[in-house]
Amino acid sequence: MKIKIIGVPFNGDGTPPEVENPAQSLRDEGMISLLQHKGHHLTDLGDLRIPKFSNKKDPITNVLNFDAWREVSLSLSKTLGDELAQDGFPIVLGGDCAILMAIFDAFNVMNQPVNLFFLDGHADFHTLDTSTTGEPADLELAALTGHLSKEIVYMTGRGPLLHEENVIAYGIGELDSIERSNIMFIERKSILKEGIEPTFRRSLGAFQNPGLPLWLHFDVDVLDKEIMPAIQYPVEGGLSYNEIQELLTLLKERNQLIGMSITCYHPRLDYDKKGVKTLLLLFKEFF
């Protein structure tokens, strides 16, 4: 497999890359050599430049660090679009989930319809009234699907970037008002009751066109803190290692994945490197 690594150390809460860079931490712990030893041809494109944060809420959108979010979104959209036009499997390493705006902007520029498998402990579907922080990562799924103001939805000049019937939100522990949409979401409690494979198969029925290419978004806070302690906003009782391994295997077996994003791993909270060891083990088994 031809893998392209893109680091995007953007955190909408204003944490700068020099304080925390998850992509670099994964490199330092051996991600690149692990993938190469598995026989993949790997190109590391380095990290996107992250602009200075104002650490203020935008007066029009009321989103924290909105200008930086928009600038990063346009930059990543261009970089990813260039790579998608070539043969390869991009892995975008955040940062936080707000990078999804850029990813689906790139697909819109290419006029390429893609389904999103949104694997997250939080639905990220807040409004500016329900978000306690105003951070982009509280609400990017609502922005992607057109549920916020036009200034946010069309921040890249295009929008809405994703239709509700092209999204499955899986593993959700905190709903963040996603129930006001028509998006199929699978709650953590349903997985505990029914199991991974039945809920996964059931969720796929929500795609209007299940044959489209699939982008996997993997927010590590969907995992239980026992295996992923490096989480800033943990959700009670996340997925176990066996559950995430089973789910990733089912996704891989569909042979539709076009790329993936991994977000919300916080190396400054990973005191004993348990979190990064979990991620590297998953990389080893998934690729």
How would you portray this structure in words?
The radius of gyration is 17 Å and the shape is globular. The model has no long low-confidence stretch (mean pLDDT 96). It has a single domain, classed as Ureohydrolase domain (Arginase, Chain A, 3-Layer(aba) Sandwich), CATH 3.40.800. It has an eight-stranded parallel beta sheet, with helices on both faces. It is an alpha/beta fold and 287 residues long. α9 runs parallel beside α10.
Percent of residues in helices comes to 25-40%
Q: What's the CATH first level?
A: Alpha Beta
Give the overall form.
Answer: globular
**Radius of gyration computed on alpha carbons:** 17 Å
Low-confidence stretches: none
Annotation, overall tally of beta strands = 8
Give the CATH superfamily: Ureohydrolase domain
Write the layout of secondary structure elements.
Layout (H helix, E strand, L loop, with lengths): L1 E7 L13 H7 L2 H7 L3 E7 L18 H19 L4 E6 L5 H10 L5 E5 L20 H5 L5 H4 L13 E6 L11 E4 H7 L1 H9 L9 E6 L21 H13 L3 E7 L10 H13 L1
Parallel strand pairs: 1-2, 1-3, 3-8, 4-5, 4-7, 5-6, 7-8
Helix pairs in contact: 3-4, 7-8, 9-10
